[in-house]
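Colleagues,

For the teaching module next term, I've prepared a clean inverse folding example: a structure given as tokens, and then the sequence designed for it. I'd like students to try predicting residues themselves before seeing the answer, so please don't circulate the second half yet.
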């Protein structure tokens, strides 16, 4: 059956497990254990982004709401009622980091406007509502369509530019070009579309969806200067690039936008930054170069080891999500956000640590990178250290090439390049074996240097008192990232150390992770000449001086 035939069957209610609307919507999301009802007549309108639908949430006289203006959400205890009131005020959105996310209302909005989900498609809440992601409560066979989103609900840069570009926008566009942000023009116009809908407040056709989105982020754009100082140098550079991109597209770039009001532009709660976060963390570039955000599909998490969802669009631009294999009940529904071999980018852009990532960039930054090195495979997604301690062939090739260059051994350097280009693996292997003592020593020196840098930032982040950590809330994630990278580099060191048989108990310097029910911290311990351990950091005692109940795990060790 073709995808076009599948789309027809979905719309007719014939596809496997698809849900369709009636006079009221009935949902059983797993992030509430209770039944949720959306009452009132369902208009079942498909939104037209250029011409917002008539509001079903109008007010009449004081104290009087029509039957479409009230949605009742029932809990086991207590009952909560949500009232929708017309407003052109952007203040309808609370962008405070701890503001609640109205996900239930968004689900009712989705059902009313043609989004269709297979029976078993659920949204699950974690971290007290700060994170919500799609899961399944039923088995899904491979190739099943589990989500349909009509084209009219999809926000895209192409549609935003068609709607918002005008002669009055030329000055604002010139300013963006002057800030060297023209490569982000599509994302910028999608940001402006988001800001326009924020300005419309509850009158925006996308109000319920916008109000369900996170306000709290842990990516680079949300980090404080102190957080950046607790990152290793290369990760810090990547985070600063992300922050600079956000600054280039920030308030100064919307000053000249004619259709946004000054109150929105200069509001103390940075709506522009929130729009940036929405566009860059929930949008993706499509094959035709468009940048799209698909409501409901933006609740798919990232998967590095595998992905359960394959997205697709039909000829009319409608979105479909198909399962990629037989997905068992209880599974997360995931797509790929970016190259899973680059956890640093995932942290900087999206604000999470992918601990299932099988590898990490080796963080080798030569003074210059020439064409020979590019031909050998020098790139962030190929120069990899694996969690197992193995090193990618490209890393060995670059270390060999730079060693031959530093010793002016041009004959063997040229022989290496000829063997690489001709696919002569025997010659390459012979060269690697010949120079292995030098390249392995250079590799271990590089690894030790990175571990030392990470130890320094770990010590810096652990040194801050609790009230500082509460103010800089991304520090725990940064600490986990640093430990993740350190563990990977330590595995490489242990694998290629000239004395790999040394027992952990014989280490002279160890890193210990201490955890209680609320938090984790690391401490560095060094063994003195008498065999006694001297430690710094960790969780420390309770406030009253008593010993804190905690677990202790040695996560890395070094030997002299």
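(Answer key — instructors only)
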């Amino acid at each position: 059956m073709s995808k076009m035939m599948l789309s027809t069957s979905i719309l007719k209610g014939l596809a496997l497990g698809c849900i369709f609307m009636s006079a009221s919507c009935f949902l059983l999301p797993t992030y509430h254990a209770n039944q949720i009802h959306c009452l009132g007549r369902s208009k079942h309108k498909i939104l037209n982004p250029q011409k917002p639908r008539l509001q079903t949430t109008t007010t009449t006289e004081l104290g009087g709401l029509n039957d479409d203006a009230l949605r009742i959400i029932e809990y086991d205890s207590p009952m909560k009622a949500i009232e929708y009131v017309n407003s052109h005020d952007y203040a309808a959105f609370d962008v405070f980091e701890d503001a609640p996310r109205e996900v239930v209302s968004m689900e009712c909005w989705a059902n009313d406007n043609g989004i269709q989900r297979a029976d078993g498609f659920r949204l699950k809440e974690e971290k007290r509502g700060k994170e919500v992601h799609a899961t399944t409560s039923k088995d899904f066979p491979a190739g099943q369509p589990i989500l349909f989103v009509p084209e009219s609900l999809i926000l895209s840069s192409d549609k935003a530019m068609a709607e918002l570009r005008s002669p009055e926008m030329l000055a604002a566009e010139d300013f963006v070009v002057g800030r060297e942000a023209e490569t982000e023009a599509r994302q910028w116009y999608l940001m402006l579309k988001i800001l326009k809908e924020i300005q419309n407040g509850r009158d925006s056709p996308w109000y319920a969806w916008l109000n369900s989105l996170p306000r709290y982020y842990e990516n680079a754009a949300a980090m404080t200067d102190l957080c950046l100082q607790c990152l290793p140098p290369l990760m810090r550079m990547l985070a600063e690039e992300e922050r600079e991109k956000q600054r280039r597209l920030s308030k100064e770039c919307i000053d000249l936008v004619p259709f946004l009001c000054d109150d929105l532009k200069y509001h103390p709660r940075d709506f522009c930054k929130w729009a940036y976060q929405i566009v860059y963390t929930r949008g993706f570039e499509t094959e035709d170069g468009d940048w799209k955000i698909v409501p409901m599909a933006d609740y798919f998490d990232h998967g590095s080891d595998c992905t359960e969802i394959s997205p697709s669009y039909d000829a009319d631009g409608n979105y479909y999500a198909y399962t990629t294999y037989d997905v068992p009940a209880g599974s997360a529904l995931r797509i790929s956000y970016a190259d899973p071999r680059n956890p640093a980018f995932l942290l900087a852009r999206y604000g999470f640590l992918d601990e299932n990532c099988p590898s990490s960039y080796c963080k080798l930054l030569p003074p210059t990178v020439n064409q020979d090195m590019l031909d050998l495979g020098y790139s962030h997604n190929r120069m990899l250290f694996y969690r197992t301690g193995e090193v990618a062939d490209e890393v060995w090739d670059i270390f060999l090439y730079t060693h031959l260059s530093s010793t002016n051994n041009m004959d063997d350097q040229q022989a290496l390049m000829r063997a690489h280009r001709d696919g002569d693996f025997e010659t390459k292997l012979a060269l690697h074996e010949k120079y292995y003592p030098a390249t392995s020593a250079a590799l271990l020196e590089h690894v030790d240097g990175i571990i030392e840098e990470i130890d320094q930032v770990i010590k810096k982040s652990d040194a801050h008192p609790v009230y500082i950590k509460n103010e800089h809330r991304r520090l725990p994630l940064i600490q986990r990232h640093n430990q993740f990278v350190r563990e990977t580099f330590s595995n490489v060191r242990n694998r290629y150390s000239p004395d790999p048989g040394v027992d952990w108990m014989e280490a002279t310097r160890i890193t210990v992770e201490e955890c209680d029910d609320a938090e984790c911290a690391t401490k560095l311990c060094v063994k003195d000449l008498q065999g006694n351990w001297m430690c710094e950091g960790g969780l420390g005692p309770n406030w009253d001086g008593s010993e804190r109940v905690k677990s202790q795990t040695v996560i890395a060790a070094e030997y002299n």
